[in-house]
Structures are given as C-alpha cells and as structure tokens.
Design brief:
By secondary structure, this protein is an alpha+beta fold. Helix content is about 25%, strand content about 50%. The radius of gyration is 30 Å and the shape is globular.
C-alpha cells in the first residue's frame, strides 16, 4: 500500500509543480506595462491552483491588487477562473470588485497587453462592484458651462454579467451585458441618489474598421431619481432593438413609463421657487401633480431596387396633457455604382460612434432624396386650456385679448416663413381657442433639396417645404 501511494505521488507531483509554476510565471507576465508581484502560489486540490496577494504597479500611481486568484480544472482548458478582492487605484479613480468569476476562459491567465490579443469566455460575473472617481472643477465646468467645484462620484453595482465574450486585438463581441442593482451618488448633490434595477445590452460588438460600437438591443428597468430615499422621478421600463442586414436597417423602441412626481419635487426646491414650479405643474398635470409619459417608435431604411425607402412611425402620450404622433417617409436614390449593402455596411461600421455628427455629411454623400413626407399630429388632452389660462393671467389679459395678440403675431410671421401660412395660422388659432382638439401638420419635401442641407442648414430647408394643416 505504501509503495502504491509513493508511486501515485511520484506521478502527481510533477503535474502539481507544473500547474503552480505555470500559474506563477503567467501571472508574472500578466501585464507588460507594470511591475508584477505574486505572493504565495499553491495547489489546493488536484483541480485547483491558487495564487494569493498579487499586485501590479504601473508608473507608481496606478496599482491593481488581487487577494486571491483561483484556476479550477485543467490548467490548459480551465473550467473557471475566480478572483477575489480586486482593488484598482489610479489618479482620481478607485474601483473595488468583491468577486470576479470567469467561466470557460480561453486561458488561465489572460495576457491583456499582448499585441495579438485573443481571449474568450462563456460567462463573466463581477459582484459587489464599487467605483469612486473625482471629477475636477475644470471638467465640471466643461460639462455644465458654469464654474463648479470638484465633485466625487460614487457608483455601486450588485453584479455585472457578460455572456459569450470573444475579443481580439481588432474587434470584440458579447452576447449580452447586464448591470444589476446600480446606485450612484455625487458629493455636490447632498441626499440625491440615482438607482437602477437593471440595464441589459444584447448583441454587443465593437472594433474595426472605425472603432464602431454596436448594440442590438437594450432594456432598462426601474430607473429612480431619489432625494433622501424619496423617489422624485424615474423610468419604469425602456426597451430598444436594432438590426442591420444587407437589405435593411430596423429599429424599435418602447417607453412604458417615465414620470416626475411634482408633489415631492415642490417640497425640495427653495421656497421662493415653489410658485413657479406649481404653475408649471398645473399646466402639465392639472390636479394630478404627477407627470407621466409613454411612447413607442419604429423606423426602417430598406432597399428598393436601386433606391432606398426610409420610413418611421412613432407616438408619445402624456395623459391629461397631450399626445403626439410622428410619421415620415423619404425615398432615397443611391449614386451610380453604390449598393444598399455597401451603405448598410458603412452604417454598421459607423453606428453609435461617440460623435454621431462626425463625418455625417460624408456618410450620406452617396444618397440623394427623391422628395418625402412628414406628418405631425398633436392631440390636446387638456394642456392647451390650462396653458392659455395661465398665460392670460400672467399677461394681465382676458383669453380673447390674448388670442387676438397671438393672432397678430402669427400673421406677421406668416409673411416671413412658409410654416406660418394662413392655413397653418388658422389651424393653430382654432386649437388655442378650444375649437379643435387635434392639429395635423403635413410637410412635403421637394426632390430638389439636397440631403446634406438637412445636416448643415436646417433653417434653409424650411423655405423649400410645402406645409398644410388641418384640425379636428
């Protein structure tokens, strides 16, 4: 029996030594940009190698610490890598991750600095994530336009999960990316907190050839803006999907509900500002003191032989206030030699780049409009009546006097712009006078208008529009 045990250990020991030695060597090369220190490395079980107290220091001001690094299963094809106690510190940034689990990683240790990066994983879960960052006064001013002191932003996330990760040096993709239980605060906003139950992205990809970022779908659930643990505003649910193929681009978004609780908001503003807030509340909500909004929109750009057709249908509903529907249809001609597949490929490479206006004119250059139609319908649900009453009191006029002065102003504008034709002016006045509850505007775009003017000179396009109006 003793001889058998000795023989078995003689076979096992080299394998144990090989796994622990390889783990230590791989961790030593975890980052080529910094100095790596590894504490203890040992074999906990036949299928479990463990390293403890790992640190990576870069440029003396950036440090990554990992309390424990476990490799489970075959070292060459691990079942799982589990990291615990991760802390990343850098100038003005500190991030902590309680536990990071990587299922079926392509390697036991990913070489993140490798010039020919290749890595994959079936599933990644980060738990108990905390990110604290300091935003300088200069950055705050660049964002808001006003002088501002430095701010400290803290974000906590219960879990971040990524499915089907596949990354190379040029591109990457994720089947889905989900954040659960997010909470965020800012030092300059005492008592205010942003909370989010979940945010899920699907069909997530990025990379070559333009550094594009594409998201096939998004679902946001239970976003809340709280003050001293009292919810002031929020979004119940927002979903969005998009798809790009060789023949069409489609998108669809649904907002179940967004809301502002003015009753709670009024108690949070300074006393001298409350009258103005109450006036806005009265106009927007009537007696409910809760502003709610829902909507849905769908858009398609599809190939039609040598041309394209862009069309969209959307609506927005604010109960007790107003409803709005928007529909458009624009046929587009492709330049000679250009195909729809080439255009959609360019759009896929371009879509959701950080600066959506960058090179937009160049992107649409191969496309020429063949006219088009835009329809906007306003459905009054009480807001116009309340708005006219408040405006009349504010101006010190009766409603009839206010309508007369507005009519004179609109007629003067009629002489300058096509959007204020007699038909449009008459329809708007009917709506304001309470003689109609629905206003419809139809805008026709002649084929002669170059599409680049829509980007560079939107006011000039107004001169070419044919506008008609009607009421019900």
């Amino acid at each position: 029996m003793v001889s058998s045990l000795v023989f078995g250990m003689s076979l096992f020991s080299p394998l144990v030594l090989a796994d622990t030695q390889r783990l230590e060597e791989d961790l030593a090369h975890w980052s080529d940009a910094g100095h790596v220190r590894v504490g203890e490395v040992r074999q906990v079980a036949d299928d479990l190698s463990r390293a403890s107290n790992i640190s990576i220091v870069e440029n003396s001001d950036t440090r990554l610490q990992v309390e424990q690094y476990d490799v489970e299963g075959d070292y060459d094809a691990p079942d799982r890598v589990v990291m615990s106690g991760l802390v990343l510190t850098a100038p003005d940034v500190r991030m902590e991750v309680g536990r990071l689990v990587i299922d079926e990683p392509s390697k036991a240790v990913w070489e993140l600095d490798h010039p020919e990066l290749e890595l994959s994983a079936a599933n990644i879960v980060a738990q108990d994530v905390t990110l604290a960052t300091r935003v300088s006064g200069a950055d705050m001013r660049a964002y808001s336009g006003d002088p501002a002191p430095p701010q400290r932003i803290t974000m906590e996330v219960d879990a971040i999960e990524a499915l089907a990760l596949d990354v190379s040096s040029e591109h990457g993709s994720l089947g889905s990316l989900t954040l659960k239980g997010l909470s965020s605060t800012m030092s300059g906003l005492d008592g205010w907190r942003l909370a989010l139950e979940s945010l899920a992205l699907s069909d997530f990809s990025w990379g070559a050839p333009r550094g594009a970022l594409l998201v096939g779908g998004m679902t946001l659930a239970e976003l809340a803006v709280n003050k001293d643990d009292v919810q002031v505003a929020g979004i119940t649910r927002l979903t969005s999907t998009s798809e790009i193929t060789a023949e069409r681009l489609t998108s669809h978004s649904v907002l179940d509900e967004a809301f502002v609780d003015f009753n709670q908001l009024i108690g949070l503003v300074p006393i001298e500002d409350r009258s103005a807030i109450r006036m806005v509340t009265n106009v927007m909500t009537g007696d409910s003191e809760r502003f709610t909004m829902s909507g849905e929109g769908a858009g398609v750009i599809e190939a039609r032989g040598a041309s394209l057709l862009a069309h969209s249908d959307s609506h927005l509903d604010i109960p007790g206030s107003f409803g709005l529907t928007l529909d458009y249809e624009f046929p587009l001609a492709l330049s000679k030699g250009q195909t729809a597949e080439e255009l959609f490929t360019r759009f896929a490479d371009y879509s959701l780049v950080l600066d959506p206006l960058e090179e937009l004119g160049d992107f649409w250059l191969p496309v020429k409009p063949l006219g088009g139609h835009l329809s906007v319908v306003y459905h009054n649900q009480g807001m116009i009546d309340r708005l006219m009453s408040v405006a009349a009191v504010t101006m010190g006029q009766s409603r009839s006097e206010l309508l007369a002065s507005m009519s004179a102003e609109l007629e003067q504008g009629e002489q300058r712009r096509s959007l204020t034709s007699p038909q449009v002016v008459g329809s708007v006045l009917k709506l304001l006078a309470g003689e109609a509850s629905t206003l419809r505007l139809d805008l026709e775009l002649p084929p002669s208008v170059a599409i680049h003017k829509l980007v560079n000179n939107p006011e000039g396009v107004v001169e070419h529009l044919v506008v008609t109006a009607s009421t019900e």
